[in-house]
Amino acid sequence: MKNKIKLFQKQKVRAIWDENLEEWFFSVIDVVKILTNQPSYQTARKYWNKLAERLKNEGSQTVTKCLRLKLLAPDGKMRETDVASTKTVLRLIQSIPSKKAETLISIKMDLILLKGDQ
What's the CATH fold of domain 2-117? Predict the structure, then answer.
């Protein structure tokens, strides 16, 4: 697995490539931090914890599809954090009220439609 930093709207999103699954996994907390304009990693983590709790109570399977993998943490150490595949991240984004989320979903849907046309 390779750790990488991806950018979304000039902000960092930690990501890891799983060679066996041939799929990217993204830090859920980083995505939440960007979409909700949280000022710090800790406040984004608290937001994610509440959102995950709410989704579980609603019976959503999205949270159970998140994995815990080691990524480089803000303190420079490798720490386990919640990560999700692109598909799962898009489902999570739909649960977050945010103009950024709406923009991201719109762009992703356009790409999926274009890909289907080829």
Answer: Mlu1-box Binding Protein; DNA-binding Domain (3.10.260)
